[in-house]
Each structure stands twice: as structure tokens, then as C-alpha cells.
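Bench notes, afternoon.
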Amino acid sequence: MTDEKKLTGLTLLKKGETRYPTSPDEANLETFENANQQRNYWITFETSEFTSLCPITGQPDFATIRVEYIPGELCVESKSFKLYLFSFRQTGTFYEEIVNRIYSDLSETLKPRRLMVNGDFTARGGITSSVRIDSDEV
């Protein structure tokens, strides 16, 4: 496959202006073909700058989100994934829903061999929360 053909479906890279999605439903997780499907290898994305809103108070929630997966036929393009995570910024959602949504969206889009999503949320009322989903345990 030529490099040009590999990149055909990627629309967010090299754009001069970036349009930020306002919700996960509006975000577009772009993918490209895994060129090394013959072996298992891990891809990890992590950000400590994840934000969302408390659905009750509307106050911001902060988290470190870590995604690890062994790709099947597809890999997620990192800029589209960054914009996808950014789309939660104005979304009022509980921690558990956020991590489950990320897991479901990536699982449906990529159909990876293995997927783990972890959200470590900063303290609220003196209690920290961590939510983790591992496809080997689902």
C-alpha cells in the first residue's frame, strides 16, 4: 500500500485550523491500517490534562487518562484521539461513564486484540477515584 493511500482517511493532520468537537458524539476517531498485524505490540496514550464537568454541580473534574491497546487491523490516529478526549471538556458526566464511554468507543472503532482504559480522577471531597476497564476482565 502506498503512503498516499494509507493517509487517505486522515483529515485532521496538518490542518492549519482545528475545530474542537463540543461532545464525544461530535468527535471523530480517525484510524489507519496497522502495518504490523503479524505481531502483538502495545500502544499507550496518556494525558494528565483531561477535564470534564460534574453533572450535578457543573464544576470541572480533572483526571489522568491512560489507554493501552494491542491493535488488530487498525490503529487510532493520535490527534483525533486528543480531540476526542478534549470533547469531554464541556460534558457533564460521572467518572464511571467517562471511562466506559472511552472504552466502548475505542473498542467499537478499533476492535483491538486487547484494550485497557484507566481514569485517575483528582480528589473531590478528599476522595480520589480511579476507574479501570480491561478487555481481558470484561
